């Protein structure tokens, strides 16, 4: 792997989230790790580098929220390695999906639930979109409900993503913003969701299982997902989230607003850390 040099543009210490912040009036501070030979680093190399940086915030004795997705998988792998070598101890994880649960169990990471540990010290997870306020779209992997429950219960939430996830406004990637809905009359809610964002050129689609059939995708919680595709970014994420949640039959949406404590972005030239 290429040699790395550290450039600091902020000496502000990492401060865990204690109370909601007005993200739209805060000034971001960041520092970056830049690769001197960026072409040598593959996308997986960069994701692993970002994951390793996130795990530096993990201390022995913590209760951890374990995210879902390709980048979060590197985090879980690193935690398993540090536990096996004794560099970390007494860690307990709360997985955000069955997939993460299986991965963590295979690495002998002790697991628990929110029922037994309702307070989480730190959650680390990926994101599908990150806007300048550190608001997120999450859930394209189908785990949005469990992710939001775990990360809302966490004192600190570190997001790990690659630079393709950066957007000027949520929905701006043109890719799916998921909404988990009950199976009962799912089409009724699909039509209502599409109509809610008609002015943004929204198209709503039922997510399919992806096995070549026309069977709907079913979440770990037994629900369906309606994916929203926007031609224009959402103007007010908080208002949009409130309107979506008010619909009967909607379980959860993929707008994660005011939740991230810091975002670690892996890019072609290295890793940048954005904090509030």
How would you explain this protein's 3D organization?
The protein has 6 helices and 15 strands. The N terminus is likely disordered. Helix 1 packs across helix 2. An 8-stranded mixed sheet has the order 1-2-15-14-8-5-3-4, with helices on both faces. The relative contact order is 0.18. Helix content is 24%, strand content 26%. It is an alpha/beta fold and 276 residues long.
Going by helix content, strand content and strand pairing, the class is: alpha/beta
Strand proportion, as a percent range, falls in 25-35%
Strand segment tally: 15
Ranges with pLDDT <50 over ≥5 residues? Answer: 1-27
Strand order of the largest sheet: 1-2-15-14-8-5-3-4
**For the residues shown, what is the average pLDDT?**
87
Largest sheet: 8 strands, mixed
SSE ordering: EEHEHEHEEEHEEHEEHEEEE
Could you tell me how far the N terminus lies from the C terminus, measured between alpha carbons in angstroms? 30 Å
Q: What overall form do the CA principal axes indicate?
A: globular
Radius of gyration: 19 Å
Query: Percentage of helical residues?
Result: 10-25%
Number of DSSP helices? 6
């Amino acid at each position: 792997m290429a040699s790395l040099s550290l450039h600091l543009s902020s000496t502000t210490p990492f401060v865990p989230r204690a109370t909601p912040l007005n993200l739209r009036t805060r000034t971001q501070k960041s520092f970056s790790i830049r690769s001197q030979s960026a072409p040598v680093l593959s996308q997986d190399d960069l994701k692993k580098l970002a994951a390793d940086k996130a795990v530096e915030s993990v201390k022995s004795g913590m209760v951890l929220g374990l995210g879902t997705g390709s980048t979060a998988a590197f985090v879980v792998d690193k935690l398993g390695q540090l536990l096996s070598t004794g560099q970390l101890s007494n860690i307990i994880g709360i997985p955000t999906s069955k997939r993460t649960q299986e991965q963590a169990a295979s690495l002998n990471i002790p697991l628990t639930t929110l029922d037994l540990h309702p307070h989480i010290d730190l959650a680390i997870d990926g994101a599908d979109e990150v806007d300048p306020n550190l608001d997120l779209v999450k859930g394209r992997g189908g785990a949005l409900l469990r992710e939001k429950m775990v990360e809302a219960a966490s004192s600190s939430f570190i997001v790990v993503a690659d630079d393709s996830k950066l957007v000027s406004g949520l929905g701006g990637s043109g890719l799916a913003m998921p909404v988990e809905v009950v199976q009962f009359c799912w089409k009724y809610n699909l039509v209502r969701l599409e109509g809610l964002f008609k002015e943004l050129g929204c198209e709503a689609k039922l997510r399919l299982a992806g096995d070549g059939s026309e069977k709907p995708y079913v979440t770990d919680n037994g629900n369906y997902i309606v994916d929203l595709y926007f031609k224009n970014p959402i103007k007010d994420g908080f208002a949009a989230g409130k309107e979506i949640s008010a619909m009967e039959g909607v379980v959860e949406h993929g707008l994660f607003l005011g939740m991230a404590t810091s975002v670690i972005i892996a890019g072609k030239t290295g890793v940048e850390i954005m904090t509030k």
